[in-house]
């Protein structure tokens, strides 16, 4: 992950010629981290669902909504 962040920073620096505000970069990185966490939660929820755990329990442990869990296949 550190390598990906370093590559990302290098590419942003090249594209922006050093004029981009670091706050924007940190915001984008945070959004990507959150996206990764959500994808992981969804994967865990799918496994829990396969194992027959109740949706309410899956929601409790993954912090996904019941609606999101019900849509999972």
TrEMBL record:
This is Transposase/invertase (TIGR01784 family).
